[in-house]
Structures are given as C-alpha cells and as structure tokens.
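in:
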C-alpha cells in the first residue's frame, strides 16, 4: 500500500488540510468555552504529535474518538505532519457505531482514505500479526463508560497484548470515565467466568480512565506480553467529575448509549436484559432507562421501587412498546427511571434491587424462565453465578453486595499506584480536587486515599 509520500504535492496538501483542521478545532466558540477538559488527543495535538512522529500508526477508534471540539482523531492523525496513519481497528459496533450489540463487525476499507479497517469484533477480537505488519505503534482512542461488561476495555487489553507479542508500541489517548473516577462498586470477576464481557479482574464499576486501566492491565501482568506503554493524560479532569462537569461533547460510543447519563442507566439495568420476559428499554427511545414486562402492573411496580428509598432516583409508572413490526402489538408496563442526582445513586445496590423486585413481581419467572444461553451470559456479565443463585434461592441481595466489600477495599488499595489523577479526600466537596493540586502529568504516580463505601438502598 502506498503511503502519502508516494504522491506528488501530497505533503503540501496534508499540511494545508491539517492546518485547516487545527483552525476548526481552535476557533473561539461556545463549545470550546464550555469545555474545561483537554482530552488526550487535545494534549497530543498541542505537543505536535511528538509521540507519533516518524511512526506508522494503527488507530483503534470509533465515532466517539474525537477531540474536545468534535474533530475526529482519525482526521487529525490522517493529516498530522510527520505521522503516517496506516491502519484503523474497529471494536464492537464498528467504526461508525452503526452495528448492534453482539453483531459481527466486518473488515473493509475506509472510503475517504482507502485505509484498511480491521474488525476487532469479527473473526478475531485481537489484532493479528498480519494486521500489525505495517504498524509501529497502536493508538487507542475510544470512549468507555466505566462498566466492566462494556467490551471496549476488553479490546483495549487484548490489543495491548498483541502489541507486546509483536514488538509494537502502545499509546492510550485518555478520556474521562463518565461515571467519575471515585466509584468502585460491585461484583468481582471469578476466573472461570472470564469472557469478552469480563476480561479483567476489576469490579463491575471500576472507577478508572482507559489510561489508568491500561496501566493496571500492564502492571498486574494480566496480559501475556506487555508492550511499551504511553498514556497521554488529560488536562483539567478530576476524579469527582461526571461527564456533565467536563463541558465536553458526548458522541454515542454505541447505539444504545445515546446520552452521558446512559452510562449510569447501563449499570442499573444492563443485567435485566438477560432475564426472561423483562425489558430494560433497549428497543425504545429510552435504552436502559426502563424496567418493563407485559405482565407488570406499572403503578404497583413503581410504588414498590419508590418505597425502597433509593437516593438520587425517581421511578414513574409507564407503558411502552418496542420498535419493530413483531413487537408493535405488545404493550409493556413498568417503571421509567429518572436520575435526579447521579452522584448519590448507589449503582450496584440499586441494580441488584431492580433484579430482585422484577423477579418478585413476576413470581420468579424472570430467573426461572431463563434459557441456558441467557443464564450463561448473565453469569458472565456478573463475573460469577452468585447473583443468579441468590435470586433463585430467595437469599438476601443486600447480604450479597455487602459480602463484596473486602474485595472492593483490596481493589481500591491495589489500584492506587495506577492512578494518573489525584484521588478525592474524604472531606473534600465535589467540584474540587481533594489535594488542591492540578491533575497529574503523564506518568506521575499519585497515592490517594481509599474512597468511602457507596450508600445502600433502604429496605422496604
């Protein structure tokens, strides 16, 4: 495949195009004024792409890989002087975010540049030696949502492993965790349940940026061969920030994560999607923000959830239908979830409470009626079978989540050496760094304090 230098006048064209992109990305605007965070790609551009100079670059990205003003990392690297973009790698949902969850992503050619787009959710989920033949460094720029079962972090680690095995460098352009960097909640991963929806030994909600998680994957030796790793850290991001605090544009990283708050809803109801006869809003304009079934009484169900006294949430009775001809005549009743205060919501206790109440309201049929493949996927998502067995046996869900606290305390301490941004002190108000200092520079280690345990849902 010919590179840009093979064509007359291409260098001048690239420099002009890059200058135009830089102009677009730096023009004064309301969007730029609102952004208080420089993403990893913004920092890289300000440094004149020095980490990539003279190297053949393979870019792992999708539609969410943009700078703070919405210019795609693909376009910026394609036109950056001294940078030779040679390949694109697409995770689940594809480069453009148009394939649905679980659908195979095809390898093809990017139409404007002619560059190969290699699928990492098709025949292979890990870059092959042939895919990396024309690559010196893999660059990862994908927006994550902070939940272990969301597969982009599996792609991150497997691509790191491929880079290490093939003698390639690896670079992460860091991005915020939409759930913030304070939370660590939920189910541990049992090794026998490891899968593509649960690759790494982190809690279900792990409270790390992609760059921090990459450092942990390498540092804990979770991959067979570690690459030379560079993390380009953000400027202006603090651990207590959720997405709305950053002023950044939200580009949906997948079809059913249309808004920043969808990351919270995904944690709250994602597991419900594997239960028999229960819908979590996927297939409606409110993905993951509904809990419904044709057999549920909306008023009784919403009232029961409201009586649990869960902080930060409001449950409203609702009826709805799913998209698609085959579902148009089926009316679902249930509750719509409204986030009044995302920070105060205990995500995992609430997620387990929703599972428990839906199962009770439908007389145990959502768990008892699961097909074998759904039970298997449910357990993989949970990282073990303890949640499903507790629901089947009518055991206390609160006892279950409390039993994970020793694991979470150990995890919070173990992750400290991988943090690139200061931890919030226990007494610091939200909106200020706990240490009173700016975020760490790339590679600087910060020793934080362990975070408090999330609040629990009240019993009825």
């Amino acid at each position: 495949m010919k590179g840009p230098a093979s064509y007359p006048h291409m260098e001048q064209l690239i420099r002009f195009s890059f200058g135009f992109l830089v102009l677009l990305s730096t023009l004064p605007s309301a969007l730029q004024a609102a952004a208080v965070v420089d993403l990893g790609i913004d920092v890289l551009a300000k440094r004149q792409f020095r980490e990539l100079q003279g190297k053949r670059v393979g870019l792992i990205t999708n539609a969410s890989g943009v700078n703070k003003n919405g210019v795609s990392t693909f376009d910026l690297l394609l036109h950056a002087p001294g940078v030779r973009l040679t390949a694109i790698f697409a995770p689940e949902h594809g480069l453009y975010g148009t394939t649905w969850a679980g659908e195979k992503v095809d390898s093809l050619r990017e139409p404007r540049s002619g560059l190969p787009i290699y699928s990492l959710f098709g025949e292979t989920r890990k870059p092959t030696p042939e895919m990396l033949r024309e690559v010196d460094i893999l660059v990862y720029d994908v927006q994550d949502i902070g939940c272990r079962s969301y597969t982009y972090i599996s792609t991150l680690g497997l691509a790191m492993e491929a880079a290490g095995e093939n003698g390639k460098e690896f670079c992460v352009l860091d991005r915020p965790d939409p759930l913030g960097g304070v939370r660590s909640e939920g189910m541990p991963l049992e090794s026998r349940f490891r899968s593509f929806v649960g690759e790494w030994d982190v809690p279900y909600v792990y409270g790390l940026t992609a760059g921090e998680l990459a450092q942990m994957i390498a540092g804990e030796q979770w991959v067979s061969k570690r690459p030379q790793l560079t993390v380009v850290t953000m400027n202006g991001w603090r651990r207590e920030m959720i997405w709305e605090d950053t002023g950044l544009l939200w580009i949906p990283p997948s079809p059913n994560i249309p808004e920043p708050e969808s990351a919270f809803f995904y944690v709250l109801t994602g597991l419900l999607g594997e239960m028999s006869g229960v819908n979590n809003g996927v297939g409606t304009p409110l993905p993951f923000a509904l809990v419904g079934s044709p057999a549920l009484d909306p008023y009784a169900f919403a009232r029961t959830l409201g009586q649990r006294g869960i902080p930060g949430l409001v449950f409203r009775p609702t009826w709805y239908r799913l998209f698609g001809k085959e579902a148009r005549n089926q009316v679902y009743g249930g509750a719509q979830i409204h986030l009044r205060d995302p920070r105060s919501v205990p995500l995992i206790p609430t997620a387990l409470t929703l599972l428990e109440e839906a199962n009770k309201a439908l007389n145990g049929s959502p768990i008892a009626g699961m097909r074998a493949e759904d039970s298997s996927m449910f357990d993989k998502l949970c990282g073990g079978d303890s949640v499903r067995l507790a629901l089947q046996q009518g055991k206390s869900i609160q006892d279950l989540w409390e039993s994970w606290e020793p694991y979470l305390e150990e995890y919070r301490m173990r992750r400290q050496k991988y943090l690139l941004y200061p931890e919030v002190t226990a007494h610091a108000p939200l909106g200020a760094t706990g240490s009173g200092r700016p975020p760490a520079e790339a590679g600087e280690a910060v020793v934080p304090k362990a975070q408090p345990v999330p609040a629990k849902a009240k019993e009825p």
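note: The chain is about 30% helix and 10% strand.
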